[in-house]
Structures are given as C-alpha cells and as structure tokens.
Amino acid sequence: MKSLVLVFCLAQLWGCHSAPPAIGPAYRELNCDDPETEQAALVAVDYINKHLSRGYKHTLNQIDKVKVWPRRPMGEVFEMEIDTLETTCHALDPTPVVNCSVRQLTQHAVEGDCDFRVLKQDGQFHVLFAKCDSSPDSAEDVLKVCPDCPLLAPLNSTKVVHAAEAALRTFNAHSNGSYFQLVDVSRAQLVPLPVSTYVEFAVAATDCVAKEVTDPAKCNLLAEQQYGFCKATLTEKVGGEDVAVTCAVFQTQPVLPQPQPDTNAPTPVGASVVPAPPPAPMVVGPLVVAAPQPVLPVHRAHYDLRHTFTGAASVESASGEAFQVGKAPKVVQPGVVAAVSPVAPPCPGRIRHFKI
Fold first, then answer.
1. Any idea which UniProt keywords this protein has (predicted)?
2. Best CATH choice for the domain 153-249 from the list 1.10.40.30, 1.25.40.10, 3.40.50.300, 3.10.450.10
C-alpha cells in the first residue's frame, strides 16, 4: 500500500513539472507592410490631421512596429509606432493629404514620431490612444544636402513677425474682397543672400471690405469661417524693403452643430477620451487674441505634434486588464504553438518618402 501511495505522489509531482507554463494575454504580430497594418496606420494619420488646428498636415512615411491584441468581447487593438512627414498643406487647408506635397529635405523637413492604439471592430477602425511629437531635421543634415539652404527660424523673431505683418498689409491693400486678419505664423526662414525673410502664415476673412477698413479692431470674423494661407518674402534693400506675397483663400466652412459624444462607440477600460481640437484663434488687427489653445514654447520654429492631443494611459487587453507599453507577453502567430519562440515578421516597414 505504501508503495502505491509513493508511486501516486511521484506521478503527481512529475505531472506538475511537465505541465506547460500558464499563457497570459497573447498578441499576434503582422508584417509592417501588411495591407491591414497600413489601413490602421492611415486611419491614425487621418486622426492626426483632423485634430490639427495649427502647423501642417502630416503624411505616413513608415510603420515601425505593430502588435495586434485580441479585445473582449470582440475586436482587436492595433498597437503601433509610426513615422510621419510634414507636408506643405496647412492644417486649415481642406486639400486631402494624399494631394499634398511632402516637404523636402532642402526645405528643412519635419518628422513626426507617433504611438497609436487603433481598435478594429466589425471592419471599422477607431483610434483609442494617440501620442505624437515632431521635430525638424538637424541643421547639420540639411546643410549636408544643401549648404546654401536657409534653416527654420523662430516664429517669434522680430524679423519674422515684421515680415508677416508687412506681407498681410500688402495683401489687404491690393485686395478687392474681404479684409483678412492674421491667425498664426506657421513657418519662417532667414535667407542670407539676398538678405530677406521668408514667412508662411494663415489668415481669416472678416466682415469688413479690405479697401474700406479704417479701424481693424471693428472687423469681426465671418460666421461661416473662411481661411487662407499666405507665402511671402520680405527683401531688405538700402533705404527700404520689398514685399512679395501670394495668398490662397480656401472655401468657406459652414458652422456645424457641436458633435456630441457617441455613446455607442467602443471605449476600452482605462482609456480616456482624446479632446477635440481647439477652435481657431480669434484675431484683432495684426495681433492674435488669446483663445483656448495649448501653451506653446515661445522660441519655437515649428508646431510640435505633441501639442495636438493627449492620449490615454492604457487600453483594455484580451483579459479585460489594462496593459502597459513595454510588457512582453507571449506572442501568437497562426500555425505556431504559443510556447515556441516566434520568428518576428519584417519590421520596420518600407520608407515611403525619405528618412530623417
């Protein structure tokens, strides 16, 4: 009898040691150039552009990483890292981003670095988490490509502000339509030869006629907002200065009802709702009046994507528990046993334009 008990205990002990370890929440890895991955990434980039009120639209350049998590009770969450590039279309420009030119290296390009979590449910993608920042190419790299190319200048530079105000005065003086006010200075470069200042800035139409304005402070923005985007060069000359300015005026934007939260949209446990973009700034004369906007660094040379929105800290995992970026649970791939170390698919993906 004692022998039987001993054999039974040894069998139990052997079974405990031979049992496979518990498998936690699993994710699957896709190729970074998989069509499904790219579809999720394009939804993420579209989300960036819809939340921009300053700066320039961005376009997808490269997908760095992707993990796909199952989500209860249904759907999957794409955890992604993507790189973007700034285009030449201003955030207020209604032109679809696919029709916008990418800003080239010689123009001092700007790159975005983003983390996203995108829910796919019933064939539809919804952004759950968004976190981005952006930075211009280094001065050294620009000068390697083009030694004579001007670099980005601080937007609050005295020369930059003067050039933008002088260019707007020139545009209004030659306009037969509405009087336009300054929204913001978006980009600037100090050109050494000939000594000049290049600026790009956004403007908004008012209810005043340009040639009849005597007091700009009495002009109000139109109810159906109409924006424009200007490019100007102020060239310094002996005894004066020359201003060359061109502006593209966009179609009016009708006032739409304030969107209400979609109570049917899936929101994971632990995730916070990303706030809507702030309204465009109101302006009086040449000065921008304070409106609800993120606090921006004073001595900046570009609009950093980090000020566009803030994301949630975590999203719901397959087990219903919040997971944090950086954990390394088991990976599951089709046809591969979870206990076997997986072979990672090709990532990062292809570069669509150029790498900074």
1. Disulfide bond, Glycoprotein, Phosphoprotein, Repeat, Secreted, Signal
2. 3.10.450.10
pTM for this predicted structure: 0.76
The region, left, alpha or beta by phi > 0 then psi within -120 to 50, assigned to residue 47 is: alpha
Query: Edge to edge, what strands does the sheet with 178-191 contain?
Result: 178-191, 196-209, 227-237, 240-249
Confidence of residue 284 (pLDDT cuts 50, 70, 90): very low
Amino acid at 338: A
Task: Compute the average pLDDT of residues 136-148.
Answer: 95
Asked whether the beta carbons of 127 and 274 are under 8 A apart, the reply is yes
CA 35 – CA 43 distance, rounded (Å): 12
Q: Distance between CA 16 and CA 98 in Å, rounded?
A: 58
Distance CA(36)–CA(51), nearest Å, equals 23
How do residues 321-332 score in pLDDT, each as one tens digit? Answer: 333 344 444 444
Domain ranges of the chain: 35-142+258-276+302-323, 153-249
- Phi and psi at 95, nearest 5°, equal -60, 130
